[in-house]
Design brief:
Blueprint (H helix, E strand, L loop, with lengths): L1 H4 L6 H4 L1 H32 L11 H33 L6 H23 L24 H31 L7 H33 L7 H12 L1 H16 L1 H4 L7 H14 L16 H35 L17 H24 L1 H7 L4 H30 L6 H27 L23 H28 L30 H27 L15 H5 L8 H15 L1
Helix pairs in contact: 3-4, 3-5, 3-17, 4-5, 4-6, 4-7, 5-6, 6-7, 7-8, 7-9, 7-11, 7-18, 8-18, 9-15, 11-12, 11-18, 12-13, 13-15, 13-16, 15-16, 16-17
The structure holds heme-as (HAS) and copper (II) ion.
Length: about 600
């Protein structure tokens, strides 16, 4: 249907060859990161389930950091910049202002990534003094080599300049079209970038103000709670930075693949505005168990998080309604019978839909995370990786892969190497992730911790309510293996598409929404207003918590008093009133060890 809309019309590559080259480069960088990240993923999945151990456990954090950073920083964000460049150019129907500038920010992002990756891989070579075993949540007290922080900083600056590129394009478009509504895809790009500018304030201060000087030895210590809080200031909204490109595809491409049209353009705009407003003032929901942050601030973060469910619930409604519309256009009938009329043989459609379906489950595990009291049950357990492999690992990753099957021919003027393999690949991902994330969620409820190489628990009995730990471990390892095979199939299919016959006439128009932009209030397009309100909400949510952290434990920490990141019992006891309790403490511990043995 999408092809029929302007079949025979010039493709994106025909219309904008220079821009198509940048988009291809960004997507290829993203796929290289995905493939490498998958190698580290399978190593670690098989290692912690004790199925196969190719590396010593001492390298576990190097592997985990490489997996995390390659997947959630490089794969996702390179895809985003490629997709957003395509969406901006396509929807504004104009070339970028200066393609050299575009290549410059892309180059910066590549340099930044290489620096960070070299620093991480240094961890495998103990004889060199470079490592960054700090995980993708790189806050203190873990410390990385300056190359890692420097690389991250350059990468983020690259994304800022990318955003400026798209704003530049829009600004000039606006001069030529003063009375027109911002085209929907461009609107999505711009609001997402405004959210990103707000969010990255936190990480810029954390990295440039504290972590980098600390790793360079310019300052002796940092306040771990402060860098953690600044990290999560960015660490929550970044998840929507990964998700918004998937939403852009669900809103603007998926309906046309289903044979229909987007249900409501105004609702889509409302959703993106809500994300701009609400994504940042919720980061403290990652810190419910952090001492040093008052419960009241955690309550506020929880309340804001619950509001933030709204745009995703609106999305579920709008996207499913658009799909239903498409199915009925294709002759589907009945309450659920229309589902059969959807184009399930199209890998792009099926992949994106399965991704959406899994996001419904990921969203529910997110709601559980967000409840302050239930969070205590699952925090730092394998439940959390279960949650984010459904969200970023499927809603986002599977949508990106599936959309590539549709987009790549438009960027290259070549056919996809194999549609059946593509269809098998997206289904395999779904099955693999169903197994892996199910096992992770259940193991999390059993209390199996995340981020450890050795969770064997030999000699420890778990109540086997769903399945034994051994069975769950095998389920996890099997799921991980299917995901790895699925990634290889994806990478091979795209690589082999370099030698397929050329095609043209793919067109690049998308159908108009059923309810168009004219139906939405003009104020929705007032980007300055939403940016301003977004900033105010962040100031309201963060000023007091940050001020109280600095007041309690100092801008740069106060050594051992600052934060119980590392408690040394002798230091605590020495010369303190607690020393009086020492004899009692040793008696209690002797008693306890008696009970345990
Ligand atoms: Fe999360 C932890 C709460 C969404 C990623 N999250 C994480 C971490 C990551 C992550 C990476 O409150 C771990 C960080 C770390 O390493 O410590 N998360 C939420 C909430 C949401 C949420 C409330 N998370 C995401 C998304 C992510 C992501 C999106 C990545 C892209 N998350 C948390 C909390 C924690 C957390 C706590 C801390 C846990 C802890 O203790 O450490 C919400 O945004 C979710 C809303 C979603 C929905 C679903 C709507 C359904 C839709 C499907 C439509 C269906 C379609 C298909 C299209 C309400 C839109 C239809 C098909 C047919 C066949 C018809
Ligand atoms: Cu979050």
């Amino acid at each position: 249907m999408a092809e029929a809309l302007d079949a025979g019309a010039p493709s994106f590559r025909d219309r904008f060859p220079d821009e198509a080259a940048v988009v291809r480069a960004a997507l290829l960088s993203s796929f290289i990161a995905l493939t490498l990240g998958a190698v580290f993923g399978i190593i670690q999945g098989l290692h912690r389930t004790n199925v196969l151990r190719v590396l010593d456990s001492q390298f576990y954090y190097t592997i985990l950091t490489a997996h995390g950073v390659l997947m959630v920083v490089s794969f996702t964000i390179f895809f985003l910049v490629g997709l957003f460049t395509w969406a901006t150019v396509r929807s504004l129907e104009r070339p970028l202002e200066d393609i050299r500038y575009t290549w410059a920010w892309y180059g910066l992002m590549v340099v930044g990534t290489l620096m960070a990756v070299v620093a991480i891989l240094g961890g495998f070579v103990p004889s060199v003094d470079i490592s960054a075993d700090v995980l993708f949540t790189f806050y203190a007290p873990l410390q990385a080599h300056p190359l890692f922080y420097g690389g991250l900083a350059i990468f983020v600056i690259g994304t800022w300049l990318a955003g400026a590129d798209w704003f530049w394009s829009w600004y000039n478009w606006k001069q030529a079209h003063p009375d027109e509504r911002i085209p929907l895809q461009a609107f999505m790009v711009l609001t997402t970038m405004l959210m990103w500018y707000i969010a990255t304030i936190g990480i810029a201060i954390a990295v440039v103000g504290f972590l980098l000087p600390w790793s360079l030895g310019l300052i002796e210590q940092v306040n771990p709670l402060l860098t953690r809080t600044l990290f999560w200031f960015w660490g929550h909204p970044v998840v929507y930075f990964w998700l918004m490109p998937a939403y852009l595809l669900w809103y603007t491409v998926l309906p046309s693949l289903a044979g229909g049209r987007l249900f409501s353009d105004p609702l889509a705009r409302v959703v993106f505005v809500l994300f701009l407003l609400l994504s940042t003032p919720v980061g403290i929901h990652h810190q419910y168990v952090d001492p040093g942050i008052a419960e009241g601030f955690k309550m506020i973060a929880m309340t804001n998080t619950m509001f933030l469910l709204l745009p995703s619930l609106l999305t579920a409604f709008t996207v499913v309604a658009s799909m239903e519309h498409g199915a009925r256009q294709r002759g589907g009938t009945g309450l659920f019978g229309w589902l059969r009329a959807l184009p399930w043989r199209d890998p792009a459609f099926t992949g994106m839909t399965l991704a959406g379906l899994m996001f419904a489950a990921g969203g529910f595990s997110g709601m559980i995370n967000a409840g302050m009291n239930i969070n205590y049950l699952i925090h730092n357990t394998l439940w959390v990786p279960g949650h984010f492999h459904l969200t970023v690992g499927t809603a986002v990753a599977l949508t990106f892969m599936a959309a590539t099957y549709w987009l790549w021919p438009r960027l290259t003027n070549r056919q996809l190497y194999s549609r059946p393999i593509a269809l098998g690949q997206v289904v395999l991902w779904f099955v693999g992730m169903a197994l892996m994330s199910n096992a992770m969620h259940v193991m999390g409820l059993f209390g199996v911790p995340r981020r450890t190489a050795e969770p064997q628990y030999q000699g420890f009995d778990f109540v086997a309510s769903f399945g034994s730990i051994t069975e769950l471990r095998i389920q996890l390892a099997l799921g991980a293996t299917l995901l790895f095979v699925s990634t290889l199939l994806f990478a091979a299919n795209i690589a082999l598409s370099s030698w397929t016959p050329t095609v043209s006439g793919h067109g690049h128009r998308l159908p108009d929404p059923l309810s168009g932009p004219g139906d939405s209030p003009v104020v929705l397009d007032n980007l300055k207003l939403w940016f301003g309100i977004g900033m105010v909400l962040v100031v309201l949510a963060y000023t007091l918590p940050l001020a109280s952290i600095v007041q309690d434990s100092g801008l740069f920490g106060r050594g051992i008093d600052a934060y119980p990141a590392m408690i040394e019992t002798p230091v605590l006891l020495e010369g303190s009133p607690l020393s009086l309790a020492e004899p009692l403490a040793s008696k209690v511990s002797a008693m306890l060890s008696g009970v345990i043995s």
